[in-house]
UniProtKB/TrEMBL annotation:
<protein>
    <submittedName>
        <fullName>DUF1329 domain-containing protein</fullName>
    </submittedName>
</protein>
<feature type="signal peptide">
    <location>
        <begin position="1"/>
        <end position="24"/>
    </location>
</feature>
<keyword id="KW-0732">Signal</keyword>
<dbReference type="Pfam" id="PF07044">
    <property type="entry name" value="DUF1329"/>
</dbReference>
<feature type="region of interest" description="Disordered">
    <location>
        <begin position="41"/>
        <end position="80"/>
    </location>
</feature>
<dbReference type="InterPro" id="IPR010752">
    <property type="entry name" value="DUF1329"/>
</dbReference>
Length: 450
């Protein structure tokens, strides 16, 4: 298959056009830069010219004093720092080139919206075996004609991406552990600014793709599993949902347990712009964690790498009460830490003959973690519709820096949604022993399997 490859300019200072959908693994010379000029996961190891982005020095791997495994993660490793500056509607033009369209729209729309920018800390880290697998993947991983990665396991699949689909798979397969659980709440905030709880439950999750003792293909292609059981709100108590995502999206499956019927039913279309029961239908399946699920509905363009202001190291967002964070028209600016980082910019345009409620999107992937931290979506009329966000937090015990709380602002309806609100929960992303296969079987939804 022929595809275009743009020349990557030194330092990636500006945006660059890179096209292509399928291709081969990178050359041995390129892969050899991992751990040298590049971090083990593929980011530029060096800082930027003016030092506002420091060099990566191995990340944050030492838990803070007083940390208890399985407990809370609201201990801010940089609690003593003050903002370098704050951005409001009055001075946003000064920083426009480092803001997403969604961030600029929120600054214009709400006088109370503010971006506090702190010193940049490159806290991203992963276990050594993840680094080693990433290096192997660089020489073996490929995208097939269905935009599905083959020849990758246990690490970032495409640490030196050549097209947008590869970069998005890096986000989908970013390192966040093998098995974990958390007690979760989610809130829809109405156009009047009233928060309405939509979810209160406990979730078990696993990533078989990252099982340390597994090999490529050993999990039958399943890379992410979730089972969410709702304790509330009362109308949803006892309801449950289970999902298994596969590298081959045609093998994705989802099930829902309806307490009123005492029946487990298979979801007919657990993907794309279909509303997901996990959020009471507020979010679509492919808006989870900014973007999730299959890629074949869109043409993906790797625009390039750019210095951007993004949420980062936001452990403070997990502190206090839920309503300390869910503050009127948007997240409480006092609890969201922003930093300057390099991000990969990826654009998505719906393929000819395919329908989607958001036919255009733009996503911002942190270069150090590959986590999608921001995303914007346009509707069929070309209006900027939703701006998505995800708050990365440090987890030195894992080690990792990865997203927890995520959501979106609807710029047209003036509603917004926050998921994985863990402020009042005693467990915030608890690392677990490996779950049994039965944990993520349909029978588990009403059999009490844990």
């Amino acid at each position: 298959m022929n595809f275009k490859r743009a020349i990557v300019t030194a330092g990636f200072g500006g945006l660059m056009g890179i096209q292509g959908m399928a291709g081969a693994a990178v050359s041995a010379d390129e892969a050899a830069q991992l751990g040298k000029t590049l971090t083990p996961l593929g980011a530029e190891k060096a800082g930027n010219k003016d030092g506002s982005i420091p060099a990566w020095d191995g990340g944050l791997t030492r838990p803070p004093a007083g940390f208890k495994a399985g407990g809370r993660r609201d201990q801010d490793p940089y609690a003593g720092e003050k903002p370098l500056y704050s951005i409001t509607a009055k001075n946003m033009d000064q920083y426009a080139d480092k803001l997403s369209d969604g961030a600029k729209a929120m600054l214009k729309k709400h006088a109370s919206y503010r971006i506090d920018v702190y010193p940049t800390h490159r806290t991203a880290a992963a276990p050594q075996w993840v680094y080693e697998n990433t290096l192997k993947n660089a020489g073996t991983a490929k995208l097939n004609d269905k935009q599905v990665p083959v020849g990758a396991h246990g690490g970032i699949p495409f640490p030196i991406p050549k097209n947008g689909a590869e970069a998005m798979w890096n986000h989908l397969l970013s390192w966040r552990g093998e098995n974990w659980q958390f007690n979760n709440r989610a809130y829809l905030v109405t156009s009047e600014g009233k928060p309405v709880m939509t979810v209160d439950g406990i979730a078990a999750q696993s990533m078989p793709y990252f099982y340390k003792d597994a090999t490529a293909g050993s999990a039958n292609g399943n890379y992410w599993n979730i089972r969410l059981v709702n304790a509330g709100p009362p109308i949803r108590a006892g309801e449950a949902i289970l999902g298994r995502q596969n590298l081959d999206p045609d093998r994705d499956v989802g099930y829902v347990y309806l307490a009123g019927q005492r029946r487990t039913r298979k979801l007919p279309n657990a993907c794309c712009d279909t509303p997901t029961p996990a959020t009471a239908g507020v979010m679509s399946f492919d808006e989870i964690s900014v973007f999730a699920g299959r890629l074949d509905r869109f043409d993906w363009k790797l625009v390039g790498k750019k210095e951007m202001l993004i949420p980062y190291n936001s452990n403070r967002s997990l502190a206090g009460k839920d309503m300390d964070l869910i503050n009127g028209r948007h997240l409480n600016p006092d609890m969201v830490r922003w930093e300057l980082h390099r991000v990969w910019v990826v654009e998505a345009n719906v393929k000819p003959g395919v329908r989607h409620v958001a036919p255009k999107g733009r996503y911002y992937l942190d270069e150090d973690t590959w986590v999608a931290v921001l995303g914007d979506r346009w509707d069929a009329k070309g209006q900027l519709w939703k701006t998505m966000w995800q708050l990365p937090v440090t987890m030195p015990d894992l080690p990792a820096t990865t997203g927890i709380t995520f959501g979106f602002y609807d710029l047209l309806s003036n509603t917004w949604f926050a998921n994985l609100v863990l402020n009042e929960k005693p467990e915030q992303y608890k690392i677990m022993p490996r779950y049994s296969d039965a944990t993520f079987s349909p029978d588990s939804l009403n059999s009490g399997v844990r």
